[in-house]
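Bug report (template v2)

What were you trying to do?
Predict the complex of my protein with zinc ion.

What happened?
Run completed; filing so the output is reviewed.

Input:
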Amino acid sequence: MRYGGNTTCIEVRCDGKIFVIDSGTGARELGNLLMRESGGEPVEATLLYSHHHLDHVQGFPFFVPIYQPTSKLNIYSGTTNQGVTEQVLSAQMAYPAFPVGLDQLPSDLNFHIFSAGETLTFGDVTVRTCPLNHPGGAIAYRFEHRGHAFVQASDVEHTDDHPDSALTALCKDADFFSYDSTYVHGEEYERFKGWGHSTWRHGLDIAEAAGVDRFIAFHHDPSHDDAFMDGVHRDLQEASPGSLVAIEGMSIDLLSGSITTP
Ligand SMILES: [Zn+2]
Ligand SMILES: [Zn+2]
């Protein structure tokens, strides 16, 4: 109830440019917000997929801008993902699963593929990428703009190469680093070892090795209720004061460092 029940959808705004990481069920609220803000003007956004697991794509049919003829979406995914984005989005909207097919959408959708590890440039915004250890593969993104950096790394499971050297390099001196903290270390993680997720303790190791300013525990297990998440927050604060547990609707201003929660 307090930490949020929607699945992954993160908006990254760099001046007038709108980026969206994944279209989990949170994409519905984001789509409504973008429509309200646009006031009838065309919505243009760049959608970057970490991977194609259901919790990261299922909000796409409910992202209202795709039904507007004036909307333009540039959709990116990495080759480490075995599925092709267009196929996955099309399959989940295919008859009889959904009444409108992907090919019937009036908006301008452009699909792009990059190699995991490639650096993408969008004007004055640099987006670095890094492959992650996850069933079927996943991609971490580092956004750099106006001297600040935000890294989103989910979904990922740590390996024996811990802290992961490539991910640590991606996080170097970042302002904020959001990491897959689905499980808590110890008995719970051991039970789900190999499922492709990690713990905040492993994320903190990376944050410390990379000199990250503030760590964010992200991708909560749906069976963890508010009381459990309060416990995670307490333990995380004790281990690393200033670290955050992601809350749905949380907004971070990288220029001022201010954080607002609903
Ligand atoms: Zn996944
Ligand atoms: Zn996931």
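What did the reviewer find?
The helical segments are 27-38, 54-57, 85-92, 165-171, 187-191, 200-210, 226-239. The CA atoms of residues 32 and 191 lie 38 Å apart.
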